[in-house]
Amino acid sequence: MNVNERKAIKRLLIRSTNWIGDAVMTTPAVRAIRRHFPGARISLLAKPWVAPVFAHSPHVDEIIVYEANGRHRGAMGPIRLARDLRRHRFDAAIFLQNAIEAALIAFLAGIPVRIGFDTDARRPLLTHAVRCTRAIKAIHQTGYYLEILKGIGVVDGDQVLELTLGENDREQARQLLTRQGVDPAARIVGLNPSATFGPAKQWFPERYAALGDRLRDEWGATVLIFGGPSDRELGENIRRMMHGPAIDLSGRTSLGQAMALIDRCDAFVTNDSGLMHVAAALNTPLVAIFGSTNSTTTSPHSDTSRIVRVPIECSPCMKPVCPLGHMNCMKQVSVELVFDTLKGLL
Q1: CATH code at 105?
Q2: Contacts of 196 (CB under 8 A, 6+ apart)
Q3: How far apart are CA 170 and CA 164, in angstroms?
Q4: Is there a smaller number of Cβ atoms within 10 Å at the N or the C end of the chain?
């Protein structure tokens, strides 16, 4: 696709990925799309739980919500979504998501130019199929998504993550901390003990609790425990295991508010998760604990991050549940190791 072909595109749709961490890692690609399609009105199609990542992005003109649990649910949902998209009269679509569904919906919506990796048997549905090689799959995912653009002649090497926060979310975060009695000058450390995809990615709750106690005792830190609605029991258990006070936010904030609170943190300790990538994008100093997953492709992409990982023969296995049953990769990561890594970072 040459420069004149790009200039001819006036309405462009970006199909976002479906997970928060992946969406954050696409932000360099979204910025590059804006840079190389400057005359286009750019809409971004995203699931509701991902949309807040782009809600205040200067590179997106409009967010279209894929109402997977509402209007667009069920077997007829994608067809209804295609009809909704057809009304926008898009000239082109770029798929950052790899599933065949993304290309099929765009095809049914009559979008004439369809760009994406040739994954998931969707090559016949693409007008510009970019080959996804083994080498591309092996690089960090920020570069992986940029390779889609490289496949249509758009070369952009800027892999800096980017998140723009809303002022309303910032204000609600300030109010939440005030209600909890947190001194505006307090040192705040966030703990994120959750992770999707399975328990193999999660460091042990009792170690998070012990780390929280040490951060409070030695640094005088206010400890915030993060998590989604499904993590309420986990967050409450960690708070109860701690000897001193902590503020459990699990399931009590929106994603936008959680992002604003992470931005307020002086440090963040996390499993490999969506909020890990949020912290990286906000340049919050963070320590990320890796076990079963691949730190080469999904590590936090920032200069203010450190990875704690003890290499063993079976790691990374990429399994949601430890196939050996004892999670040696996580057992090797001690509270002392995480604390010392955080101390060295700060």
Answers
A1: 3.40.50.2000
A2: 19, 273, 274
A3: 11
A4: C
